[in-house]
Amino acid sequence: MADRPEAIQLLSGSRRKLEVAVPGENKPIYFGLAFVAVVVAIYFAVFFYLGNLQSQVETLDNEITALENKRDKKFEQEALVLSKRLSLAGDLTKNHLIWSAAFDRIEAITPPSVQFTNLQAILQETRIEIQGTAPSYTVIAKSIAALLADPVFLDVDVNKVSSLPSGLLEYSMRIAFDKNKFLLNPVKDKP
Q1: pLDDT at 148 exceeding the cut of 60
Q2: What is the pLDDT of residue 29?
Q3: Does any domain span residue 147?
Q4: This model's pTM is above 0.70
Q5: Is residue 31 part of a domain?
Q6: Helix 137-149 vs helix 99-109: angle between axes, to the nearest 10 degrees?
Q7: Out of 47-56, 80-89, 180-189, which region has the weakest mean confidence (pLDDT)?
Q8: Which residue from 138, 145, 140 is spatially nearest to 160, judged by alpha carbons?
Q9: 146: containing domain
């Protein structure tokens, strides 16, 4: 076949053996293979890490779903309504009128021999109307003096004093007061 010029020879007639003449000549090939191996290792590490993260997300989703199913939504709604009502009640009590404290204050400065037969508080007019009995005019005068000595009470007006068959005096009076000093609940800061 070698005699014919038109024939094509596919295999070379001379084979050369490839040998490394200089040591380290194939280093770029080794570095390339090492780089590819590192990239493949990183790819598989990231792939397995991503799979692990996805399984953790699925586990957490299942736990959240289980907790969501365990919730008592009606109770939670009622608790929210209660919380809102308590916050509104707290705001109201900060500026709430404390009548019992006001009446205790009047009782403390009133002489013990005085008896109240009727007590009417009128907030809009910031006054208290009192009807009562006392053993003498002196006791009524001491009551009026004690009320006027207190800065909470602005004015005392005695309407009527009359004598009863028992010897006691029946009287009625109007007491004007400062609502801000008298009735508002003092808010104390908690430590």
Answers
A1: yes
A2: 83
A3: yes
A4: no
A5: no
A6: 130
A7: 180-189
A8: 140
A9: 99-182
Per-residue pLDDT for 156 more than 60? yes
Tell me, what's the pLDDT at 13?
61
Domain count, the chain: 1
Q: What is the DSSP code string of the chain? A: -TT-TTPPP-S-S-------SSTTTTHHHHHHHHHHHHHHHHHHHHHHHHHHHHHHHHHHHHHHHHHHHH--HHHHHHHHHHHHHHHHHHHHHHT-B-HHHHHHHHHHHS-TT-EEEEEEEETTTTEEEEEEEES-HHHHHHHHHHHHHSTTEEEEEEEEEEE-TTSPEEEEEEEEE-HHHHTBPPP----
CATH number at residue 168: 3.30.1360.100
- Looking at the predicted structure, is the pLDDT value of residue 92 above 80? no
In a domain, 30, yes or no: no
Report the relative pairing of strands 169-177 and 127-134 from DSSP bridges.
antiparallel
Locate tokens 């199913």: which residue? 69
Q: What's the average model confidence in pLDDT over 156-175?
A: 91
Confidence of residue 3 (pLDDT cuts 50, 70, 90): low
Q: With respect to residue 159, please indicate whether it lies within any of the assigned structural domains.
A: yes
For 70-101, what is the HEC assignment? HCCHHHHHHHHHHHHHHHHHHHHHHCCECHHH
